[in-house]
Amino acid sequence: MFDRRRKRVDTLVSFLEQRGPIHLKQAADMLDVSEMTVRRDIAEAKGSLAFYGGYIAPVKDFGATSYAMNTEEDRNASKKAAAGRKAASLVENGDTVFIDCGTTTPHIAKALPEDLELTVVCYSLNIANIVCKNERWRVIMLGGIFYPNTQVFKGAYSLSLLGQVAITKAFVSAGGVHEKRGLTCSNFYEVEVKQAVLRATDSRFVVVDSSKFSLVKPAFFAPLAEAGTIIADAVPEDYARVIESAGLSVLLGAD
Amino acid sequence: MFDRRRKRVDTLVSFLEQRGPIHLKQAADMLDVSEMTVRRDIAEAKGSLAFYGGYIAPVKDFGATSYAMNTEEDRNASKKAAAGRKAASLVENGDTVFIDCGTTTPHIAKALPEDLELTVVCYSLNIANIVCKNERWRVIMLGGIFYPNTQVFKGAYSLSLLGQVAITKAFVSAGGVHEKRGLTCSNFYEVEVKQAVLRATDSRFVVVDSSKFSLVKPAFFAPLAEAGTIIADAVPEDYARVIESAGLSVLLGAD
DNA sequence: CATGCAATGATAAAATATTAACATTGAGGA
DNA sequence: TCCTCAATGTTAATATTTTATCATTGCATG
Prior knowledge:
Two copies of one chain form a homodimer.
Chain A: H1 4-19, E1 22-23, H2 24-31, H3 35-44, E2 49-52, E3 55-58, H4 72-75, H5 77-89, E4 96-99, H6 105-111, E5 119-122, H7 125-131, E6 138-141, E7 144-147, E8 152-154, H8 156-162, E9 169-173, E10 176-178, E11 182-185, H9 188-200, E12 204-207, E13 219-222, E14 229-232, H10 237-245, E15 249-252
Parallel strand pairs in A: 4-5, 4-9, 5-6, 9-12, 12-14, 14-15
Antiparallel strand pairs in A: 1-3, 2-3, 7-8, 10-11, 11-13
Helix pairs in contact in A: 2-3, 5-6, 6-7
The structure holds a DNA duplex (30 and 30 nucleotides).
């Protein structure tokens, strides 16, 4: 029975998935075999592990196939980060914050001050994965059925939970902010959650990057007047007046 | 205005976090600069990005600091994988499977045949992150408050969801399998979910590695007779009789 | 206890990645 | 316009990783 190799591979895979990539040398040390043997192990574990410049990593960590950097997310990354940092700076000790799904909100999650006592309410896998890293925070996840393209979990039963949590600050994203069409987003299944959240708290923030002003997306979720405070990296000149006349305040984050 | 670099770094960070590491060449292509420039970008983005053998990755992906492979998880990884593979092999097209939390159950999730039509019910971030990768599967997550040490979400409201889902196969983990003390686990908050799941289906599997036999953990969740079928990598000789006389069947996975 | 064979280790050659040094470009100020 | 300097590109040297090859170990079988 010569399957020490299989066993080492299992051990390695498990270790790497838990603790992240390590150098070939470390792996060889830990498994008490030569680097060459570890190489051969990985070669045999086709598909699940790979080398990258002397490091071993689960292949899933190296899944980038797309070559184009042309998504909306990529192009506006620094704007989104700016808005996200601004939003996060508003959070205070003891807050219970709701963080919406989308491409801007992860920047809020990442920028939250680590040393505060917080409760974070979310419904997307993205956000959960970020905020779960901080063991000081209480994290509440609304469950449900998973929607892959937005990484969101949604179910009617989870909305009732919102009634039980006292949200002190809600950060909601929007795909479009328009004078007449109000706040819109791309996916209809998000609408119910966004509306429930807006109803559940008075401290509402709509977080967007500046490319969203004057856009309209298919799913409507609230009139502009209900946006509370708008947080963005910048506001186009013509929209400053629109927002002001809607009685909203605006906060800007430095790009 | 010389901060093209900062912008490129933002774009890169965002891209990498979304889509995983890429090769220096690809990055240079996409950003339309030379490899050398990308290198200098990363050098300036101290801390957040790094190179590994020609690939760029978020540093957080390379966080393995611990050198010892001594956790229970590491030591029994191949046993757990064996049990996990066996469990996964039972799953059939159209099944709605429940996958418990723990260190063994992720091996089930990873070994599920990718080409089946499945609904997967879970309540831990671990499992969700694995099964969400397959877009063919419907994933249902029980929400609630997050418990960091087990990566579990738990809330009374989510248990009611179990009544609405027809689970065809439930894979439950156990920290101890004992003749008299029955099935036990380490965390009391898991008990409610495990019990609800066992009630919700007749097709029950208790998945453990062979180190669990004759152990007793603090939280009791079911008598041995209710285990249904036990799946393990192996069963110690003295326990084969115990299990048989409890009227249970056993399935073994090749280590 | 000798034989065969998978598993492993060691070494050197080939391929790649990293670094350092110098050349070029282009924006902003005199 | 010319000058300066940061940003970038190019090239060659240096270091590292990968691959290929052969020698060694040690278990299993007859």
